[in-house]
């Protein structure tokens, strides 16, 4: 069985929409895997969200073209879950959810607490922006 077939089968069996390159590393050499993933992106079976991060696609029932299988916000949330990065809504989204403002936030902003993140996560023209609140949100330790 060709590596491309094994990668496609592995991707199809996964429950989530996001695929990390590290999850497929055991299937073949890095060069072979790069070639296969590049071909899958060219044929629109996957979309590249970031370095080593891909998302599944599905047929859009309106345009009859392949499109990401989830919304950008759902993809970003799953990426952070898989990378074990603890994030929260940005200040504007928190204010809107608390009823402090009626302006709907347009940009996707996440609060990383004190953690500094430079990873670019984007899909088309949309991208994640990071803000740091400085608040320490880790679990408290009691001596």
TrEMBL record:
Protein name in the entry: S-adenosylhomocysteine hydrolase
Organism superkingdom: Bacteria
InterPro entries on file: DUF6088
Any matching Pfam family: DUF6088
